[in-house]
Fold this sequence. Notes:
The protein has helices at residues 36-45, 60-64, 73-76, 91-96, 120-124; strands at 55-57, 86-89, 105-108. It is an alpha/beta fold. It has a domain at 36-112. The protein has a 3-stranded parallel beta sheet with strand order 1-2-3.
Amino acid sequence: MADLDGNTEQKQKEYYTDTPQTAPNFFLKGSHQYDWGLQNRLAHIFNPESGRTIMLAFDHGYFMGPTTGLERVDQTILPLEPYCDCLMLTRGIQRSIIPASTQKAIALRASGGTSMVSTVDEWEG
């Protein structure tokens, strides 16, 4: 047995039977029953002290088409990164603009297809 290798004298083992096992509580309301993996991901998105998050969403170009103000994400959005908890973006922006060294949570838009909105004139026409 592994615990007997190299050990010639028997020691009394401590199984801590007098101490009840405890599970740590999760800080996010309604999430205490989630498995470790989901709690771990939520802990990256939500602030443990407040239970709140600031999510910076700039994935609009994916489903709305070109969006004014999002032409240069490196100039308009990236300076705001230190002030948020989570970035909601598309794969293209993540790969081309966001530094790989970022420690922020990422909510990546992953959809089966685009749904660019048309103008009202095209709907009526």
